[in-house]
Design brief:
The complex is a heterodimer of chains A (805) and B (288). Chain A has 805 residues and is an alpha+beta fold. Chain A has a seven-stranded mixed beta sheet, sandwiched between helices. In chain A, helix 8 links the parallel strand 14 and strand 15. In chain A, helix 15 packs parallel to helix 16. The longest helix of chain A has 28 residues. Chain A is globular and about 85 Å long. In chain A, 57% of the residues are buried. By secondary structure, chain B is of the alpha+beta class. Chain B has three domains: 47 residues, 2-Layer Sandwich (Uridine Diphospho-n-acetylenolpyruvylglucosamine Reductase, domain 2), CATH 3.30.43.10; 111 residues, Uridine Diphospho-n-acetylenolpyruvylglucosamine Reductase, domain 3, CATH 3.30.465.10; 110 residues, Enolase-like, domain 1, CATH 3.30.390. Helices cover 37% and strands 26% of the residues of chain B. Classes of the chains: A alpha+beta (805), B alpha+beta (288). At the A-B interface, helix 5 and helix 20 of A face helix 12 of B. The complex binds flavin-adenine dinucleotide. The site of flavin-adenine dinucleotide (FAD) has 31 residues of chain B, from strand 2, helix 2, helix 6, helix 7 and strand 10.
């Protein structure tokens, strides 16, 4: 053997494959301000669009006078619904089977709704012109409460009047959208009626908003000479946008190129299709020059995709010993003026039916009623798979309430109800098949790490000290055990606007042994260029540093359904591994030919193929790549490329155990997070450093939502939280030091066993922070209080419990 | 978030500033750090066709400590207040308060003069200056005049400064005794839910004098003479603090906003003040 040959360990390290904390290749450009975002795109002759928005939450649009605006030098056009009507683009379909006004067609249904689109030579002129468009409104009664909406005579959606059948079945009332039922209603009721113990609770998961640093925007450029439309935009699903744009505009799909450049965070905010995108396209078609639209922060908060807004009522039953016997959940879902929820077509309430959580619950029933109100449309999955945060919050609160009812410790209650390791794959009462899990091990590890018994003892002492008047600070211990459901497909269950939710990867190996891989997904900060190269490095034996990952350009990337719902690693990551394996299979044949042995007589070894039993005889992947291009190999086509479209057989089910310790000042309502421990099991770990970063980010957004972040409306539908002064976006100052930990339970059906992790900390974090607040007040009779737990609401809880007397 | 068009001026002398103010009247405004004014212009809540930047005027950014008298030029930044050793010795309440204003980026730009002149009930400096019994020097077409900080504020954004006058400096005696600036806010960069500025002196174990001002609990800063009086002559014990809080509650008039309802704000105002008094008093004895 050649002594210069690096040993196996060194060769393996050189690959920077799976399991190593490779530094993010994206960061050199982001940290130097060299990213290329939508608003960085500047094209010759480009015009700028800006919206006239409704100041009213519900009003008839009596007239729109454009004259003064058009007279302003630099203004090129003012578009209204009447201008879009001939193109049939004044309304557009939503992802939820409803339709939405692109520009106000006769009336407005929420404050901030798009009324007219001004196109001008620069954004300053456009902003001035917006002020000059005179719109006459006639105010209508405003409904901001979904329960009131279902009783009201006021018809919000006049365009649907008389339609008793919606996209998801019958509509019970003119402001009702759908009822979605899952599970066994009568069976569940029977169990509840005969149970030893039943705990009932109503909770409101408030409306909030994913708040990426970069707001939404697009640049449309219609080339009238060659008939091609190029659309750059903040799209989490660029390929679907191309298909939708083609169907809506009638432009053939090959004549549309959609590009998602660098994206400054998505969190679900950039899944939907917004009027701004449509208007920039129409404006470019009309004017023949590129048109840019970029919303500002206030527009982003008030008009693009909200999240949550679920009114949930639960009943959970158990034996005296605490074994859960049944679960009943009803949701009244406030969808705003249009149903623009971003869910797979057959799931109008997303995967809310994962609400049995991590527990072995024999029977369950879920019903969700979607309702129209005078609020902005949306209903996206904010850093979570479809409605999974709602589901996990619901069950983790119900567990706490049941523990109170039973007079039991909630850690123990969880333990005795966990699905057991040997029960996987486990089919839950509401239908999902959980792929793998080892909950008891994770839970025990978490409780031990924080010295759970010691914490409870300290808490009990604190309560005594409080009662003696020695302290005004209470201590809360927040517990959460969550199971996520991520990685949609499978195609047979999941589609978006008819497109099956597969994903894809296409690999080209260059002659000198480096490579490019293109995927159907699009990174918004998750670090795909880093981690997907690591998957490939391990699969094909080429160093991650020699692999370029490219996403987001529909002219070059294979079709995919995009990045949201933690689906990139479960689906596109699987496609990457599968395409890599095709490369490897061909490489094996080339190696065997070069080594003059039978295909079966060579085996893969880190970065090469070696002759079995004679490792000194080998061909490196570099040599193989070169051979693929420089010589004729009998029976093989030249080149080394592969593509895989991956339809996952199932979703993946990451899980985790979180503990939060909080001190609460009863007099001011100020919470202080003393400790936050997060154990995550996302199966095989590709890059531990990126996982940790994702967990820190997700927990921070969880802290935000639990402790103050909301989109609040007043009675007449005014948004009260329209700027970052009132909309809570935590900084390093508000965030504690997180302790992260893990177990590894690979997914049995995923090629590399990975499950997806970016959203877990948000899903698990929200109930954990909330449970800590609620737990602090449990000794004084608190059962449940709604989020967000900002200072005054915490203070109000203390006040209600008589702690200020 | 794009302001309406405006003309920008950067005069070099105060005379030129006043001339511009006289020429354009209501349509002109001076700008210091711009961190209150520019957001208002971007929201189109302030319409300023003629914007006069004060950055090029010399001599407005001095901190002078002369004997027991402290003078802060209008263009002294909030950051300057934090890093001035002389000031931190002579009037430590200033840095304690400044550290609770906004964040470092805002403090590099935001000025004392702008904060005091602005008239926003959320600003922290006005209450602080009332606590310190500061005098505000303004200059206008008819020359200079002094206005007491305790008289300066009429209602939100309305002050005794005339439109053609410019605030040039703020002066006050270096306070004796103990101090505290206590502020509750929702997050970094937020205005106060409630804030209290307290200066106390001790005289043979009893409170010799006490000055108390509250922020963001009315449409103007609230200097509560009665709250201070309630402490004087007492041992600053629980009973005295309760009396001071009760007196203060009689002077404030908070309104409901996203920070919470009135009952909460009144409660927190009381807690904030009692903590501020306790801390200020403990520093009095520490200094004695
Ligand atoms: C995110 C954020 C958070 C903040 N948080 C706080 C906080 O917690 N507490 C707080 O107190 N402030 C806060 N501020 C406000 C900040 O401190 C401002 O800088 C300050 O209020 C105004 O100072 P300025 O120099 O920026 O004044 P500018 O914005 O330039 O001016 C404000 C007003 O005062 C007038 N003015 C300025 N200088 C003079 C002068 N010399 N003579 C006459 N009129 C003058 C202007 O015409 C204008 O009307 C915050 C600001 C931001 C952006």
């Amino acid at each position: 053997m050649n002594d210069m040959t690096p040993d196996r360990e060194e060769r393996s390290a050189n690959l920077k494959g799976m399991g190593c904390s490779r530094k993010r290749v994206e960061d050199s450009r982001f940290t130097q301000g060299k990213g290329n975002y939508v608003d960085d795109i500047k094209l010759p002759g480009m015009l700028h669009g800006d919206f006239v928005r409704s100041p009213y939450a519900h009003a008839r649009v009596v007239s729109i006078n454009k004259e003064a605006a058009l007279a302003l030098p630099g203004v090129v056009a003012v578009l209204t619904a009447d201008d879009l009507r001939p193109l049939n683009l004044h309304w557009m379909p939503t992802l939820a089977g409803d339709k939405q006004m692109v520009l106000a067609d006769g009336k407005v249904l929420f404050q901030g709704q798009e009324v007219a689109f001004v196109v001008a030579s620069d954004r300053y002129v456009a902003a001035d012109a917006v002020e000059l468009v005179e719109v006459e409104y006639e105010e209508l009664p405003v409904i901001t409460d979904p329960f009131e909406s279902l009783k009201s005579d006021v018809v919000l959606r006049e365009d649907l009047e008389g339609q008793t059948e919606g996209a998801h079945g019958p509509r019970k009332h003119h402001n009702h959208i759908f009822t979605w039922e899952q599970g066994d209603e009568s069976g569940t009721n029977q169990v509840l009626d005969n149970a030893d113990v039943v705990a009932t609770e109503s909770m409101y998961y408030h409306r909030t908003h994913p708040c990426p640093l970069e707001t939404c925007g697009s640049v449309a450029s219609m080339d009238k000479v060659n008939g091609k439309l190029t659309l750059w935009g903040t799209f989490q699903a660029p390929h679907v946008v191309r298909t939708v744009a083609s169907l809506l505009s009638g432009i053939e799909e090959h004549n549309i190129r959609v590009v998602s450049p660098d994206i400054g965070g998505g969190f679900g905010n950039k899944v939907g299709v917004y009027p701004g995108y449509v208007c920039s396209i129409v404006a470019s078609i009309v004017t023949g020059v590129p048109v840019k639209w970029v919303e500002d922060r206030m527009e982003n908060l008030m008009s693009t995709a909200f999240a949550r807004d679920y009114h949930m009522t639960g009943k959970i039953s158990a034996t005296k010993e605490g074994k859960i016997t049944g679960l009943h959940c009803h949701v009244t879902a406030d969808h705003g003026g249009f149903d623009a929820c971003a869910d797979p077509t057959k799931f109008p309430a997303g995967f809310m039916n994962i609400c049995t959580g991590s527990y072995d619950i024999p029977v369950a029933y879920l019903a969700v009623d979607g309702v129209y109100t005078n609020k902005a449309p949306g209903g996206v999955s904010y850093r979570c798979s479809f409605r999974v945060t709602e589901a996990v919050y619901f069950i983790e609160r119900m567990i706490e309430v049941l523990a109170i009812e039973l007079g039991m410790d909630s850690a123990e209650l969880r333990r005795i109800n966990f699905i057991k390791k040997e029960q996987f794959p486990y089919t839950a009462a509401l239908g999902w098949e959980y792929d793998s899990g080892d909950y008891h091990t994770a839970w025990d590890k978490a409780l031990k790490a924080v010295d759970y018994d010691g914490l409870r003892k300290e808490q009990a002492e604190r309560v005594e000290a409080f009662k003696r008047g020695e302290t005004r600070t209470l201590m809360g211990i927040g517990l959460t055990f969550f199971t996520e459901i991520v990685g949609a497909g499978p195609v047979k269950n999941c589609d978006i606007l008819g497109m099956g939710m597969f994903d894809s990867c296409e690999i080209r190996i260059h002659p000198t042994g480096s490579a490019i891989a293109r995927l159907g997904t699009i990174s918004q900060g998750q670090g795909h260029a880093t981690t997907f190269a690591q998957i490939l490095a391990s699969e094909i034996g080429i160093s991650a540093d020699s692999i370029t990952i490219e996403e987001g350009d529909t002219d070059t990337a294979p079709y995919g359904l995009g990045t949201y719902g933690s689906r990139s690693t479960p689906v596109a990551g699987a496609a990457t591994a599968m395409a890599g394996r095709k490369i490897r299979a061909k490489a094996q044949m080339i190696a065997a030919y070069l080594l003059e042995v039978h295909d079966d007589d060579v085996e893969f070894d880190i970065d090469r193929f070696v002759v079995k039993g004679a490792p000194e005889k080998f061909k490196t992947m570099k040599e193989i790549a070169y051979a693929a291009y420089n010589q004729a190999i009998p029976g093989l086509e030249p080149g080394l490329e592969a593509v895989s479209y991956y339809d996952p057989p199932n979703m993946t089910y990451p899980f985790g155990a979180y503990v939060c310790v909080m001190d609460i000042d009863v007099d001011t309502g100020v919470p202080e997070i003393r400790r936050f421990y997060a154990l995550d099991d996302c199966g095989t770990r590709i890059n531990p450093m990126i996982i940790e970063g994702q967990i820190h980010g997700g927990l921070t957004e969880a802290l935000a939502v639990a402790l103050g972040q909301e989109i609040a409306y007043d009675d007449i539908g005014n948004v009260k939280t329209g700027t970052l002064m009132d909309f809570f976006l935590p900084t390093a100052w508000e965030v504690p030091n997180y302790e992260t930990d893990f177990t590894v339970t690979p997914s049995p059906h995923h090629p590399i066993g990975a499950k997806g992790v970016g959203e877990s900390p948000h899903v698990g974090g929200v109930p954990c922070f909330s449970n800590a607040v609620q737990d602090a007040f449990r000794p004084f009779g608190n059962r449940h209080t709604n989020m967000p737990h900002d200072h005054w609401r915490i203070w109000q809880t203390a006040n209600r419990l008589g702690l200020h007397d | 978030m794009i302001p309406a068009a405006f003309d920008y001026y950067r005069p070099k002398t105060m005379g030129d500033v006043i001339a511009l103010l006289q020429e354009h009247g209501d349509d002109a405004r001076v700008m210091a750090g711009g961190h209150s004014l520019i957001p208002m212009m971007k929201l189109r809540m302030a319409d300023v066709p003629h914007l006069i930047d004060l950055q090029a005027i010399d001599g407005l950014d001095a901190i002078t400590i002369d004997g027991g008298r402290i003078t802060l030029g209008a263009m002294v930044t909030q950051h300057d207040l934090i890093n001035n050793d002389g000031l931190s010795n002579a009037a430590p309440i200033l840095s304690e308060a400044a550290l609770q204003i906004a964040d470092p980026q805002v403090r590099y730009m935001g000025t004392v003069g702008g904060n005091v002149a602005n008239g926003d009930p959320g600003n922290d400096m006005p209450g602080l200056m009332q606590c310190l019994d500061a005098q505000i020097k303004v200059v206008g077409p008819d020359g200079e005049r002094m206005i007491a900080a305790r008289d300066y504020y009429e209602s939100a954004y309305m002050t005794l400064r005339a439109d053609d006058e410019v605030l040039v400096s703020i002066e006050f005696d270096a306070p004796a005794g103990g101090h505290a600036y206590e502020k509750q806010k929702r997050k970094i960069g937020d205005y106060a839910t409630a804030a209290a500025a307290v200066q106390i002196t001790s005289d043979a174990g009893k409170v010799g004098s006490a000055s108390i001002a509250m922020t963001n609990l009315s449409d103007v800063p609230v200097w509560s003479e009665a709250a201070g009086a309630a402490l004087v002559g007492t041992a600053c014990d629980d009973t005295a603090i309760k009396a001071a809080v009760a007196a203060m509650l009689g002077d404030i008039d908070p309104s409901e906003d996203n920070r919470g309802p009135v009952a909460f704000k009144r409660h927190v105002a009381g807690i904030t003040l009692s903590r501020a008094i306790t801390r200020a008093w403990s520093r009095t004895t520490a200094r004695a």
